[in-house]
Amino acid sequence: MDFVDTSATPVVRDGLVNDIMSQLYGMEVVNFTEMESYIDRNYLVNVKKTHRNPYIKEVKPHGYVLKIFNGEESKDEDYFDACYFVVDYLREYNIPVPERIQRIDGKFQNRERLYNDTDDSDSEKNCHMIILLTFVPGVILSSVPLVPSLLYNVGKLLGRMSKLLQNFSHPFFQNRPQVIWNLEKLPILTKYLEFIEIENDRMLVEEVIETFKKEILPNISKYQKGHTHGDYSHMNIIVRKKHEEVESLHCNEKLCSVNINDTAGKIPSSPYGVSGIIDFGHTRYSYIVHDVAISIAYISLESKIIDSLDVGGHILAGYFSEIKLNSEELDALPVLICGRLAKSLTIGRYVYQQDTTNLYPLRTSAQGWPLIRKIWKTPKEVLLKRWNEIISSYGEN
């Protein structure tokens, strides 16, 4: 999908969430809240303790996430099988991830037609993949203070996943088509430049694209490949206070709450620890440095306690405690970070102009333009020096 098809967003009629939960999952809704999303529809659903689902032993007290996927991605069932195969694999190694819930017919997922008063019930665009997941208790990373030790833990968990996924394989990802969000596809942003109204912003994105083509693409064969999360960001990392009870999510509770939250001894500790990773829809076989760049780009947007230019150093320190990047990958990081920011800002502007009622695509804008300019104007050697000094301060890398 080389473009963002906003018309593929599901149209959800009144009462549909209740009907899905009752008819497909055998559970009765107490209440539900719609969650933010780009072009999917996601709902946090709380249900009654009694149910009619033979595959559910006990109703989760924290609720469930009902995901109704956009019509474009819903066409490819192999895509969903592969993405949740990754999730199941990581859960076996105590990575705190959501769990799919079986329907009353035993299926974990299925395409369903959504009906409303205006659409033909036989229309293909009404056919959407529906999946129910356990809700990972906690709050998103961006809602808590981003102190160095928490950033270290975020990087450490990403490094642990990168290392684990070196031994993972699934045939779908070997041939998965590239989509616009893949960093390799950065040059395709030229199709969307017209949607950036401010000339200086548009010129900056053009400069990032040209630098990417000159400095990154010729060296891309030197970067390590592996399976990646694809969107390891402040919106997909869940945290909880360490003293709160952490649901095991089918993994050893002690491992989830202690090993993942180990920090360097001299770094001030955060009261929060990582309790979950969500949204594996961008998973693919790609370059592991892309996951690092995406993480640094988005988390830097939310940094209010430490300088945003230092976020990368703390994340890299945690990441390097599990797996290392080579010199070529480190050298590429500043351009890759700006590339991801440019992509988010540009596509976000396009999606918003297609549907001005959806403000979610503009989340990056307020902090995004100042951040990309700040990183872009900082000499690469200066930025890398700052990061290396931070990494060295942990005394273990």
TrEMBL record:
Q: Does the keyword Kinase apply?
A: yes
Q: Where does the record place the Aminoglycoside phosphotransferase domain?
A: 62-242
Task: State the compartments where it is located.
Answer: Cytoplasm
Would the keyword Acetylation be found if you checked this record's keyword annotation? no
Please list the reactions this protein catalyses: (5R)-5-hydroxy-L-lysine + GTP = (5R)-5-phosphooxy-L-lysine + GDP + H(+)
Keyword set, alphabetical order: Cytoplasm, Kinase, Membrane, Transferase, Transmembrane, Transmembrane helix
- Check the record and name the Pfam families matching this protein: APH (PF01636)
Q: What name does the UniProt record give this protein?
A: Hydroxylysine kinase
Query: Could you tell me which species this protein originates from?
Result: Octopus bimaculoides (California two-spotted octopus)
